Amino acid sequence: MAKIKVNYKKCTNPEECLKCLNVCPTGVFMKAPVSKPKSPSTKPKAYKIVPIYNELCNTCGLCVNNCPFKAITIKM
Amino acid sequence: MCDICEKHSKNSVKWYLDAENYNDDLVWKDKARYKVTIDVTGYNLEYYIFSTTKKAKFVHKLPEPFKSILIAIANRKAYNLHAGQVVPLEDALKIVDLAHNHIVIPCYCRRLLGGKEELSCLNFGVVRDLWPKYKPDDQVLELTRNETKKMLHEWGQKGYIHAVFWTKTPYVMAICNCEKKYCTAMKNRLLFNIRNSFKKSHYVARVNEELCDGCGGKPKCMPRCQFNAIKYTAKKNVVTIDVEKCFGCGLCREACDRNAITLVNREEIEIKTMW
User: Fold this and answer.
1) Whole-model pTM?
2) Which chain B residue lies closest to A38 (C-alpha atoms)?
3) CA distance B71 to B193
4) What was the ipTM of the complex prediction?
5) Is B42 an interface residue toward A (CB < 8 Å)?
6) B191 pairs with which residues across the strands?
7) CB–CB of B46 and A41 under 8 A?
8) Residue B255 main-chain phi, psi, to 5 deg
9) Distance of CA B76 to the CA centre of its chain
10) Among B44, B133, B114, B50, which residue's Cα sits nearest to residue A43?
């Protein structure tokens, strides 16, 4: 199983960039809220990109190449 | 028999065809169900999707016997949360007839997993009031019954699987139109074994081998199946469907020019498959 790492110091715009989500052919990444919102009508404070379904990664490398911040690394 | 029907359906109809399961009082008069409803209609939804997936993944990595025990608990819990069962188009149309307050909201799985905005999540009942209240920024479509049916046909043609979602069984809240790439409920079943997050339908597809001509070597039904249940044998020049893998969504049937695929009742087949 491939190990995907997102460097959160480099990934600075997870809310709008979403390049990795768009290019991934199997849907590995999730734009996840970092904490539960205080009430149902308030937006989550912040998001982060989590490679939650890394079981599905076919190591095509599209996310690594398309990330504008070079924040993603894949290890076999 | 389907275990939800056993518990929640009178007059021996399928649980989602029982008119009593569309009553909004089920939400207002049940505290636990009200809480889940708020969780999935408010901004908590994104956290709800993330946390359930994270838990499923964590449980799947545990050693035995903890894994089996916790998966069994998660499966039982799924009935009290927001999860669904695949339905073929004809049943989805019946659900539209029984339901009220049809509203189409953006699909949050597609948003969180694909960064895509697509109005493809059909909701009923209390959602029409709650969604705009909590998320006034989201684009929504309020539809009539006929418009809703037309959209269901369109989604089917695009290859989306219809799945009826409960919010604590048996309240019928939504019909999701899912794709394997984005649907978290489907992924949590296929990858992490949480069966009840995406139950199989009441049907399985069957091929009439006399009618099937293999489409000249490139069966049109095969790319429609999202579960890899259809196999083509060149020797006989027919397709076969693996009943263990088939979810009974009926999408393959619509691609067949020769009407060689029909849906049969899952309870009638000889091999007992997991729902």
Assistant:
1) 0.90
2) B44
3) 7
4) 0.92
5) yes
6) none
7) no
8) -85, -15
9) 17
10) B44
